[in-house]
Amino acid sequence: MGNFFQLNITRPWLTYTHWREKYGDLIYLRLLGLDFIVVNSEKVARELMDQRSAIYSNRPFIATNKLFGVDFSTVMLPYHGSDWKLHRKIFHHALRVESASRYHDIHVKRVRPLLKDLLDDPSHFEIHIQRFVASNVMAFTYGYDVAPRNDPMVADVKELVDILAKALSPERSAILSAFPILTRLPVWLPGPGSQRDAARARELAGQVLNVPFNLVKKNIAAGVAAHSMVSDCLAQIDEKDDRHKQEAAIKAAAATAFLAGFESSSSILHTFILAMILYPGVQAKGQAEIDSVIAATSRLPEFDDRPLLPYVDAILRELLRWIPVIPLGIPHATSKDDVYNGRFIPKGALVINNVWAMSRDESKHGADVEEFRPERHLAAESNSSPQPISADPIFGLGRRICPGRFTAEAVIWIAIVNILATFRIVKSKDIFGEEIDVKKEFTAGIAVQPVHFSCSFVSRSEEMASAL
Ligand code: HEM
């Protein structure tokens, strides 16, 4: 079992980060007969994932994916198969940086309903944020306009994501993200309740795959399809090649986009709300910058304003760094033996990029890494010009880097700049008029998000509120 019992099971990234001081940037573990490599620094991660990507781009096998019907997902496809290459081609075509900007209008159009929901019903801000993210992903993926309330397709995805999160409880998913081999052991095989969940997940996965995809095909046939990733890719199908295989890949890549983009982007926006409450000075500074560029109340911010809003960009960078939403990334696996700095790394080793440790690297981020301090990213304070946000290790590295990163960045940016422009986010008050305390507390699991807290959204201008 080796180091197994020394681990903080629910938050293994903390143990790995602690071990960095003792064992360094590359930690080798042998557990349950398997080789694990934990990479604790961005420099080493780049040398392996980027510069030796031919070796470090495979994924480990995770048994529960098939059991729960999500083995179509791009995220876990083996590197050497033709399916993964086809999926990445589809994503590259639809979501590379130049393509992602074509969806800016979609994001701008959907931010106003978010602001209105926050104004009318602030206590359910988490639901509004999830709906905002879902409506963006459904629009750019399928050209589908989600219903203002209880959209059936969003409900399916949400139920599926919830079952997956429950089946992979925080403890279990944390262990599985660190030690996927455990999925092969009887102790981790689901019990009777989980078998029901698995059957329901398979049913939902079938719906998530087929229903929106078939709707796009129907709309194309009727000549009414909106521009989207799926309609674009179907139009580009190479008739000389296997049509069925290409359609299946488009369908699977599109469903992956929703599953991969929904929770991560929503969680980051929840963390944004929390950070703004805990750091009111940062909030005020962001608002002052926006007011200096867009005369207060005249209009809502848009993408063209972005170059003039460096502090808002710094808030976004700090959000990704402060609480990395997927602290251990998605595990990679080696496809042949390697030697790095004299250390042998065997074929089949599971490679974990400890993004948490990278986000706590004081040589890159300066001191007080536990604090939310956007200034650390501003040119005047940091010595070098910052890397693009899309290159942040939170989006992964090498050939498996997140293909949705440009779109995710755009969706999150437009939301935070508009929320800041429109509201002061403050602590709620109880019936005695006392402020309700808000703590920096997060759930554990493969992805982390703030534990539920309450807050108030105070409109910064009557005029803007009535315009919503
Ligand atoms: C803030 C939001 C997001 C974060 C933090 C995030 C993060 C990640 C990470 C860490 C990986 C694994 C990278 C690696 O293996 O090194 C990944 C993979 C992936 N992401 Fe994202 N992602 C986000 C949003 C999205 C969106 C919006 C989409 C789709 C539109 C998307 C689609 C994917 C896909 C398809 C993969 C699998 C790539 C592969 O295995 O080749 N993600 N993402």
UniProtKB/TrEMBL annotation:
Q: Can you name a GO cellular component term?
A: membrane
Q: Which UniProt keywords apply?
A: Heme, Iron, Membrane, Metal-binding, Monooxygenase, Oxidoreductase, Transmembrane, Transmembrane helix
Tell me, in one coarse class, where this protein mainly resides.
Answer: membrane
Q: Needs which cofactor?
A: heme
SUPFAM superfamilies in alphabetical order: Cytochrome P450
* Location(s) in or outside the cell: Membrane
Name the Gene Ontology molecular function terms of this record. Answer: heme binding; iron ion binding; monooxygenase activity; oxidoreductase activity, acting on paired donors, with incorporation or reduction of molecular oxygen
Q: What membrane topology is given?
A: Single-pass membrane protein
Q: Which PROSITE patterns does the UniProt entry name for this protein? A: CYTOCHROME_P450
Origin: domain of life: Eukaryota
**Family matches, as Gene3D superfamilies:** Cytochrome P450 (1.10.630.10)
What is its pathway? Secondary metabolite biosynthesis
Q: Does the keyword Heme apply?
A: yes
Write out the residues that bind heme.
402
Family affiliation: Belongs to the cytochrome P450 family.
Q: What is this protein called?
A: Cytochrome P450
Q: Which organism is it from?
A: Suillus placidus
Q: What is the lineage of its organism?
A: Eukaryota, Fungi, Dikarya, Basidiomycota, Agaricomycotina
